[in-house]
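Review form for a predicted model. The reviewer records the input and the model, then writes brief findings.
Reviewer: anonymous (R2)
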Amino acid sequence: MKSIPALIALLLATSAFALPVSGITDASLKRDTSTLASDAFEGRRPGTPGGDKAVAYITQRMQAIGLKPGNHGKWTQDVPLVTITTDPATSLVLTGGATPLKLAYGTEVVLWTKKQVATQVLADSPVVFVGYGINAPEKGWNDYAGIDVHGKTVVFLVNDPDWQTAAAGKDAGPFEGRAETYYGRYTYKFEEAMRQGAAAALVIHDTAPAGYPWNVITTSWTGPQIDLDSDDHGASRTGVEGWITKAAAEKLLAAGGQDLAKLTVAAQAKGFTAVALPIKASTTLHNTIARSASKNVIGVVPGTKFPNETVFITAHWDHLGRCPADKTGDDICNGAIDNASGVAGVLALAEAFEKGPKPARTVAFMAVTGEESGLLGSRYYAEHPIYPLALQAGGVNMDGLTVGGTTHDIVLSGGGKSELDTMATAVAKAQGRTVAPEPSPEKGGYFRSDHFSFAKLGVPMLRASSGVDRLEGGKAAGQAAADDYTAHRYHQPSDNYDPTWNWSGAIEDLDLYYAVGRELADGHDWPNWYPGAEFRAIRDTTASLRK
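Model under review:
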């Protein structure tokens, strides 16, 4: 078997290379997607009967394919979860400013707590605007410099300070220009607010830098909120977390004698000084707490030469369950594309590997829980691995397959970070496709799905998908379809299965994943992150274990 660099050189030199044949057709993709996205599964929310049905279905399919149980004779890995449901009959009261404000839950602000308490009180907490809420010592950037926010309510902007830069990449700006870094993710910002000792943390929603409209906030962050059941029961978390609309933030800052637009411009420059407002925030969250054990489902094709070394192919099985009803009265977020289709892809690849030549390394196929609640299932696996991460060669993660036909291009999420990206580029060339830049790198897609749980612990994982340049309709048709999905179906009840979908693009993508997976599984090389990638150091620290 050729080494990874040799394969890359060969594929980049010629498109006549014979790619391995997966044999995948649309029959199983249609069957598995339509089943998992049916109303019988009630949106596949973890901790619900619908979620249990999804686990049972995926397990049954893995058994039928001929996989072996992937967890020491068991098909599942328990993931301890806690569900906290906050009574929506609440509001955020802001006093002390020019105009007292009472922000309505759902339409102006969404609030929750990850502390496992029946009542969480925020009383007269001083409000501070902390720019983008970033503390990045290696960049000489600290929005919390010179201010103590213990016990206070911090309000910050979403994304990075340079997200509006036209170019993307390491030389485009302090935070890679248009390409979002982890510092721009709201998850990081809540983590930093916790480290700073804040009593409450609010991220200002704005559709462009957030990557989705406010209705995604209301379907995703209202109702029961799921988290890993930590040993301290969430005691270390910030007491109140939430999103606030841009319009409501403008009112809040105006009441404190400030202008959001001017502060936004100021916050984009290094050395920004946080602004303490003459405003105090108060709210009371009444919570119901329930614990459960959701499950990751895992099956394997055992390796014939290096069974202790692994390649992972993953997708999340969960979605939002019951959610606010749309205008048709539908209140089930079925998640057909997101991510019943991805699970169908995992199962299709599992069948291809099981039928094909047996791999040298063990190939693991895992459907994880809790992605929609913060990559919980993949995070739990990565922190409690069944197979050592140091001996994981790499893998592929799928979060939504293409259902609009074949494209001339593919897109690599966070492309250019690892040798897997270069392998995928070579395979795409052999398919007659090109690699296009991410159309919206400011949305931070690399940090929004389960590959990130592995990546941040050093394991290279590929996240790729068809681009927007369709064979039928070109870029205009592809971009229009992508924008329509984000605006009208993403995390909405309307993400339903459609029997008229064109699966040809999905199959071509799966063929690419199969070729990359085969190269990983049949060889004995160890792909790495490229120099300068933020995950390179941890991969290098485990190199001695792979000799």
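Findings: Residues 336-355 form the longest helix (20 residues).
Further findings: The CA atoms of residues 161 and 268 lie 5 Å apart.
Recommendation: see findings above.
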